[in-house]
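User: I'll paste a sequence; please echo it back and then give the predicted structure.

Assistant: Echoing your sequence first, then the prediction.
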Amino acid sequence: MPLDQPLSESEVEAIRRDFPILQQEVNGLPLAYLDSGATAERPRQVLDAERRFLEHDNAAVHRGAHTLAALSTDAYEDARATVAGFIGAAAPTEVVWTSNATDALNLVAYGIANASRGRGGPEADRFRIGPGDEVLVTEAEHHANLVPWQELAALTGATLRWVPVADDGTWTAEDAVARISDRTRVVAFAHVSNVTGMIAPVSEVVAAAHAQGALVVLDACQSAPHRPVDVQELGVDFAAFSGHKMLGPNGIGVLWGRRELLDALPPFRTGGSMITTVTMEHTDFMPAPERFEAGTQPVSQAVALAEAVRYLQHIGMDRVRAHEEHLAQRMLEGLAEIPGIHVVGPPIGVPRSGLVSFDVDGVHAHDVSQYLDAQGIAVRSGHHCAQPLHRRLGLVATSRASTYVYTTEQDVDRFLTAVGEVRAYFGAAS
């Protein structure tokens, strides 16, 4: 079957049988889970992989000479290699385990802050920033890719600038390139917006940033789980994503970085496991990735995340993307026919990720969510950790429906039917 062919109905039904949680009813109706943009559900294969590890191989990694320690270490590093291959990393050593994507982005921001204070020695000088330098983000960023850069600017005296969004919440390559200058030191943006579903013009921004010697940090939380991602082809310097958004467990995230950058970046979380020599006066740190993995590592979570990656690879990421984009267009077309619904993000026909955020005239997003929940349909409501974007759009909150490999056309159609009933139910229909 062609790589860009959406999953067939029978394929999706076979996938759904792997997810125990989807077999239940909510409020007496079959569950239609349309909140995967927040947290994806986990297939039995992932649950079993973590349980199997904990029942047979669990031990501290890189710390013992006994059999279980060796088995655990092998599983931990095999998982790193699996994830590295999934994103096209040049080597497993370019993958750092973190607790989530937020942690990964903070790792980079605070590492740069430490370098700017003189930590890391001459190798870290490339990261130094200060007054007169600029960090560029977009007005559409998730707080996890905004607040750390605000803090970096506050700690170093650099200036935080941002690319403004249009009335639909999107921005263009031209908007970004116009704000990149010889003062720009870091450009950070989401590959796919968690509110609008917009797919960023990565190559154009990377080219402009690198031409000025700036680093590019990519928030891949909404791309790595849903579409092919090759960090080498994208050309970025760092990328971050979370396990719980891609069929994996909570408590683990991934920071990918170019090896030469990771080895030069000072750590900001310190302690055991990430050192070579410690005296009472001084500590020497290990090279990447261990230099960033202080303390007890998320071993079973890494094993489970690797199994989630294998699950997605078996489906094929091109087909995951095609399936979700097909469902997104189906949602957009259906919502366009419902009076009083205002969708944010790219219009019908423009490629977007498999999520749609919208506002309902006269009805708060939380009420929309509660009404849909009564119909057995789970969606997200709120500002989706993107308050500046919602403020720019003149909205307090939106409702968001997000799809994944287990989402059916029937789920989408049930969602559209329920949304069409919301305004009348709350007395907001004209």
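The chain has two domains: 9-42+316-422, 49-313. The chain is about 40% helix and 15% strand.
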